[in-house]
Amino acid sequence: MIKQIIVFLSLFISSTIAIPKTVPSNPIPSRDHFVIYNQIYKNNPKLEHTYVYRLAGVIIKAAKKHDLNPRKLSAILAQECRYKLDCINKVTKDYGIGQINQKTIKAFKLDKARLLQDLEYSVDSSAMVLADFKRVFGRREFHWYCRYNVGTAPMNLIKDKCDRYKTMVARFM
């Protein structure tokens, strides 16, 4: 844990001293940033610290933009692809860090290439899809976020799948 704090602080210090153009508008990372950074690193310690630091900021930004819990968004991204940007599931044809499927790509008019290459676009697109499920199912289903994985079929047909996904996401919280 102490090593993570030292690495986190060294990344912050080096990013604020390096070149004035790279200084964030808010030079002190928020508590949320630190929490999400630790969550990502705990869930996939093989990732580079600079990537984890950047990803934490991107997740928080997308979560705020789409009125989502950043820890839940982070846990879903961990479940879907362990935070790997260029992830492709060739069987189900899911793309990007949030494993967005072909049908959703067409419905939201997303760019498949950008989902695999642009971290901010991929995370924001995943958050946008998740926010849409929250909008449609959030008032009547407590675990609306399961819809991100199981789709829009009637709950009585997908309850077991939803329960499994809920358990899988909870591992990453």
Task: Walk me through what this model shows.
A three-stranded antiparallel β-sheet has the order 1-2-3. Residues 14-23 have low confidence and may be disordered. Helix content is 64%, strand content 3%. The protein is mostly helical. The protein has one domain (2-171): Lysozyme, CATH 1.10.530.
CATH architecture, by name, is Orthogonal Bundle
Number of strand elements: 3
Coarse structural class: mainly alpha
Average pLDDT level: 86
Please estimate the helix content.
55-70%
Highest-level CATH class: Mainly Alpha
CATH topology: Lysozyme
Principal-axes geometry comes out as: globular
Binned strand content: under 5%
Main sheet record: 3 strands, antiparallel
Indicate the radius of gyration in whole angstroms. 17 Å
Read across the widest sheet, the strand sequence of neighbours is: 1-2-3
Helices, by number, come to 9
What's the helix-strand series? HHHHEEEHHHHH
User: Ends: how far apart?
Assistant: 17 Å
Can you tell me the number of structural domains? 1
Low-confidence stretches: 14-23
